[in-house]
Design a protein that fits this description.
The complex is a heterotrimer of chains A (287), B (341) and C (541). Chain B is mostly helical. Helix content of chain B is 76%, strand content 0%. In chain B, helix 11 runs parallel beside helix 12 (291-300). Chain B is globular and about 85 Å long. In chain C, a hairpin with a 2-residue loop joins strand 19 and strand 20. The chains are: A mainly alpha (287), B mainly alpha (341), C alpha/beta (541).
């Protein structure tokens, strides 16, 4: 029988958090827009994002093409909306992977300490010793230019953040009264760690997660911007900015600006969501 | 030995496994790069025998652990190998291009510190004020800016629309001649040469990419400054200082700010790492001839030695910088050496 | 000298405005020490901070006047206040280590104050700082002036804070819980020092404390506060002999003191008869030659050296000592959270030390030894409701957590049933203590380790919790190992007592005998340092 799962109050608590903070509410609405674009986008868009129409190239925004057309005559709006799914998928899967890996490593190191902790610390130091974007470049280049490899590279460079955070959170609670009490109640070390200490590290992790979702999406877009990872003609925000950048000096701004704004919108949404997510998983916010 | 000195030595000792790790990762990464350098060196007309011959001269037929030892030996002698694409030793290429990247990064960091730290301090000392709200908006918006996109937008605004920025192509417009190389930093070299015109031209080229990078680093520095300052201002010792009648200025700067500096210095290290990464993107946008664009070119053609040299240079730079930060930290905070022991 | 009339302070909080002070009047005459006593939330500290104009953001003085030496300080400019603070009125705080700037030499910190009030120049600051340190009887002041706070002990830090406060010869010293967190002998040394300095310099002082005993020992007059109001004022003697207000009466009753019995801590109407308690002759726990040595870089640290004692069935053994004496390490080993270096823990005839602590969690004997923790807040998982907390041991080690059993336990510890579905942050300190006790007795243990269970509680709550523990012991026949630094509480609760110092037992015997006729100098100094309110409260009954 689970002790910590949703009590009946969970949904009313989420409602309470959303009502209590308009910024959180706004961020959840923005997130809903992103999810809708990711799920239904390809169905909803007016044009095929890959269909080029040379006669109609480089048209500025109009009623027919809200965001204009690119140098091959493709509809920028359709491409921007379609790209949502790919970009969200990369960042969410990368963050999920690093969250899981970082949590396990950090929790183990923080709880048992000793040589395990020392080794893990050195490994994380080594990863962090590279400028993280550079490391991601290296990993994608070495493993090959695929979407999965972008996900792995992004996961690797984000893992140290979780590992360190969880380690610190676990470490300060290792000697807490409630942890001793849990042992006295007959919980083995692993149970104490998983059921008592780890859930208490969730609130700060939510904040970290929302920041990382933002970084992950920037990171993926940055990689495709320099020609690694996602390949043209796939619709992806980073590539679209890269392709559009060639036309900016001649004044065709819409090619780069709309995908760039979409990217910013997504990152901004994730960053805003952090505090709200934390409040939802923090029982101390309940009244 | 004083505890403080011991703390510093301890910190340097801690960096050793990291350096070893960096070398291993650099080796593994480059061996995993697609493409066979032997094929490349042998040329288009080579047959299997000559490729095998070249593979042997390059040492690529040896087992990996032995290759690793040779590679470490080369590194120790300062030999990073030869770049395929430029035909130059990688060390020469890096020495050529590193100053361009460093000049850009340092100017950007100075710029963002000069804005972000006072902003964070002001926001923390006047909570709820207009400047505090401005700081919070800037912090959230700032981390959402993709650097390459900011760069593109700035080019559109200042080059295409307003026409006040020079064309975004490199460190110096082609009508000027590079200043004599002393440090490799154009700003410093032209100033040393007393060449005001070149100095201004180099500065004009530098402004947009530096602002792009600075916008990217503003947010984390301002956020950490604000948080650290708020923490310090609510500390008990600040209350003691105020209860003893010390002036607001002394309390804010001698007491609160000095303590708040500690986490800010740590953040700076993190930010520097991000900046080195973001450099790659900004250099591509502005055709800046730094090591970032060097690495991008090298990656495209699987230029083994160049990529490896770049990755190692970046990592060593960063390890050295972190050491510097930790030593600075030790100098600010008297407690450090004691905790380590 | 200082007169405060009708002072009202309001805090703006997320749940609307809260009136922290509702019209407080107080006067301090020249050369007088005024004690301000109250439990948490009474507004005693807010009073001090609003006089000094050091309220946190969100707090605002909404009404009242403050006059100091004839000058109206009701609405001072920051500049005017800056000249008053440190030179005319100074303040010292609890938690002295945090009260000093961690990265500035203590001499520089004193020098800052001296220079601010033009008592020294840049060149003379250091010499003057040394003089200020000498004034608070810090030995070797010339060397200590260059120390950082982390290099000094807690008691030494408090002396530095006092030196800093007195450096510019203020006329009035406000002390906010100055000895909380310090060991009892250090507390006495610090308080004696301050009292001497105040007398020698002809200063006035306000002592803010939760400890009536401490206030009555050092103050000329005492005022008792509750909920932002002054309920009573008078000399210590008059308060203790004839308290007017029922709250003062309750507070005095609840303060542990010489000669009082445990039921007498409760308000008169709540004094039920003491239950029968049976102490059997059969030993429940025998600790033999227990040793704990921790390795460290500067050589092994002997936390516990060769400690032996026995607890009988139904008996309470007190374990007393100052911080670092090894009492917590000993209790951790007995409760099997920590493995001893050597020695035996024989519980009902079996040596528990033979099973490593890491495996003991799943041992059937785990249920027989439980613990009540020092800090109730820290000991409750913030993510668990009271029900989940109490259910945990039943589910893991018992036969399952039925709602009936949980309700029964809540009833036993006097926890109202609706509170079972609340999270710790929604409970008061006393309620959290009850949840912790309910969890500890859920499995009907034979031995309960009580690790300073009331240290974080207000005295009135402490009185209730101590009585609850006595009732439970009588009802369930549990033996207690009671770990504490508070000798007055030991006297109330314990049959036997052990006094520890430096990891070893210095004295043991029947509690009453050890307290009345200590055999060793160390125990004598501990007993002498414990603040004693006048024992006249009982005479007035």
């Amino acid at each position: 029988m689970s002790v910590t799962t949703a009590s009946p109050g969970t949904f009313s608590h989420i409602g309470y958090v959303l009502r209590g903070n308009p910024v959180t509410l706004l961020s959840f609405v923005m997130f809903a827009i992103l999810i809708i674009a990711a799920v239904l986008g390809p169905v909803l868009v007016p044009y095929d994002p890959l269909a080029s129409e040379a006669a109609n190239a480089l048209q500025p925004p109009s009623w027919a093409h809200w965001f204009g057309t690119d140098n091959l005559g493709r509809d920028v709006f359709s491409r921007v909306v379609t790209a949502t799914r790919l970009d969200l998928m990369i960042s969410i899967s990368a963050v999920t992977l690093s969250l899981m890996a970082g949590s396990v490593l950090g929790a183990v190191a923080g709880y048992w300490g000793g040589w395990l902790d020392a080794v893990l610390n050195r490994v994380m130091d080594t990863i962090m010793a590279f400028p993280l974007f550079v490391l991601a470049m290296g990993i994608v280049a070495a493993l090959g230019n695929t979407v999965e490899n972008i996900v792995y590279a992004t996961a690797v460079i984000n893992t140290p953040f979780y590992a360190r955070l969880v380690r610190a959170e676990v470490n300060i609670r290792r000697e807490a009264g409630f942890v001793h009490a849990a042992k006295l109640a007959g919980n083995s070390d692993i149970r104490v760690l998983a059921m008592h200490i780890f859930p208490n590290a969730l609130p700060p992790m939510m904040v970290q997660m929302s920041l990382n979702l933002g970084w992950a999406i920037l990171n993926a877009a940055g990689l495709s911007f320099i020609g690694l990872g996602v390949r043209p003609p796939t619709a992806e925000w980073g590539i679209m900015v890269a392709e559009g950048a060639n036309f900016i000096v001649s004044g065709e701004w819409w090619l780069a600006v709309f995908p760039g704004l979409a990217l910013m919108f997504a990152v901004f949404t994730f960053n805003l969501m952090g505090d709200g997510l934390r409040d939802i998983v923090d029982p101390r916010q309940r009244t | 030995m004083s505890p403080r000195l011991r703390g510093i030595l301890f910190r340097i000792a801690q960096a050793i496994p990291v350096v070893i790790g960096v070398v291993i990762i650099g080796f593994v990464l480059t061996r995993a790069l697609p493409g066979d350098p032997a094929v490349y060196f042998a040329g288009a007309a080579a047959d299997a025998a000559s490729i095998a011959e070249i593979r042997k001269t390059l040492g690529l037929d040896l087992p990996l652990p032995q290759q690793f030892l040779i590679y470490v030996g080369d590194l120790l002698r300062g030999d990073f190998g030869q770049s395929i694409s430029t035909g130059q030793p990688v060390t020469a290429d890096l020495a050529n291009r590193l100053p361009a990247s460093l000049e850009l990064t340092l100017v950007a960091l100075l710029l963002s510190c000069a804005i972000a730290i006072p902003l964070g301090v002001m926001a923390a000392t006047r909570p709820g004020s207009l400047i505090d709200h401005a700081c919070r908006v800037l912090v959230t918006a700032g981390v959402s800016l993709p650097t390459f996109f900011t760069g593109v937008v700035l080019i559109y605004l200042f080059y295409y629309l307003l026409g006040i920025a020079p064309s975004p192509l490199g460190r110096l417009d082609f009508i000027y001649i590079e200043p004599d190389r002393i440090t490799g930093f154009y700003l410093i070299d032209s100033a040393l040469a007393g060449d005001g015109e070149t100095f201004l031209a180099a500065l004009r080229q530098l402004v947009l990419p530096a602002v792009t990078l600075a916008l990217f680093t503003l947010a984390p520095i301002a956020r950490m400054t604000r948080a650290a300052m708020l923490g310090a201002l609510s500390a008990d010792f600040v209350r003691t200082a105020r209860a003893a009648g010390l002036t607001g200025r002394t309390v804010r700067y001698t007491y609160a700010f000095r303590n708040a500096l500690l986490p800010v210095v740590t953040t700076l290290g993190m930010v520097f790492s991000f900046t080195l990464g973001a450099n790659v993107l900004v250099e591509k946008v502005f055709a800046w001839p730094g090591i970032g664009s060097y690495a991008v070119e090298a990656l495209v053609v699987s230029d083994y030695a160049a990529v490896q040299g770049f990755v190692l240079a970046m990592a060593f730079l960063f390890v050295a910088l972190n050491l510097l930060i930790d030593v600075t930290y030790t100098l600010i905070d008297p407690r450090i050496g004691f905790e380590a022991s | 000298m200082l007169s405060v009339t009708n002072l009202a302070v309001r805090f703006q909080t997320r749940r609307g405005p809260v009136d922290a002070l509702k019209g407080v009047n107080l006067e301090v005459a020249s050369g007088e020490i005024l004690g301000v006593v109250g439990e948490s939330g009474s507004g005693k500290s807010v009073t001090a901070y609003s006089i000094m104009r050091l309220l946190e953001a969100g707090g605002k003085v909404v009404d009242g006047t403050v006059r100091y030496g004839g000058v109206d300080l009701s609405d001072p400019s920051e500049n005017q206040m800056g000249n008053i603070r440190g030179r005319e009125i100074s303040m010292i705080f609890q938690n002295p280590r945090a009260a000093l700037n961690p990265i500035r030499r203590v001499g520089d910190q004193i020098g800052d104050v001296l220079r601010r009030h033009a008592r020294a120049t840049r060149t003379t600051a250091k010499a003057e700082a040394i003089k200020a340190l000498e004034a608070v009887r810090i030995r070797d002041a010339a060397a200590r002036v260059d120390a950082y706070p982390f290099e000094l002990s807690g008691g030494m830090c408090q002396r530095v804070v006092i030196a800093l406060a007195l450096a510019c010869d203020p006329k009035l010293l406000i002390m906010d819980e100055p000895t909380t967190g310090l060991d009892i002998t250090t507390q006495k040394a610090v308080m004696d020092l301050v009292a001497d300095l105040i007398r020698d310099r002809g200063m006035s002082a306000i002592l803010i404390t939760h400890d009536l005993g401490l206030a009555s020992g050092y103050c000329d007059r005492i005022m008792v506060m509750r909920d932002g109001e002054v309920v009573e004022r008078g000399t210590p003697l008059s308060l203790f002999t004839a308290p007017d207000h029922p709250y003062t009466r309750r507070l005095i009753d609840a303060t542990p003191r010489l000669g009082a019995r445990i039921r007498e801590l409760l308000p008169v109407e709540a004094r039920t008869p003491m239950p029968e308690r049976r102490v059997e002759n059969e030993p429940l726990l025998e600790v033999r030659n227990l040793v704990k040595t921790f390795p460290s870089r500067s050589g092994p640290v002997h936390a516990v050296r060769d400690v032996s004692f026995t607890i009988r069935k139904g008996q309470t053994l007190g374990l007393v000592g100052e911080s670092g004496c090894g009492k917590s390490t000993t209790s951790s080993m007995v409760v099997r959270l920590l493995d001893p270096t050597s020695g035996q823990i024989i519980f009902r005839g079996e040596d528990l030390a033979a099973t490593p602590a890491s495996r003991f969690a799943r041992d059937p004997r785990r249920a027989r030894i439980q613990m009540v923790f020092q800090d109730a807040t820290d000991s409750l998982n913030p993510r668990h409701t009271s029900r989940q907390t109490i259910a945990e041991p039943l589910r893991r080690l018992g036969t399952g957590a039925s709602n009936d059993r949980i309700a029964e336990l809540a009833d036993l510890v006097g926890l109202p049933l609706p509170l079972l579905d609340r999270f710790p942050h929604q409970l008061s300190g006393g309620q959290k203590a009850r949840v912790g006790i309910a969890r500890a007795i859920a499995l009907d243990p034979d031995l309960l380790i009580l690790d300073e269970p009331t240290a974080a509680l207000d005295v009135s709550i402490q009185a209730i919790v101590l009585n609850l523990l006595i009732d439970l012991q009588a009802r369930l026949g549990i033996s207690y190992l009671f770990v504490t630094h508070d000798l007055n509480v030991v006297r109330l609760l314990c049959d036997q007592v052990i006094v520890m110092q430096g990891g070893a037992i210095v004295e043991q015997g029947p509690a009453e005998q050890v307290m009345r006729n200590p055999a060793t100098a160390y125990t004598r100094s501990l007993v002498a340092a414990a603040p004693q309110p006048p024992a006249l409260g009982d005479a007035a009954q």
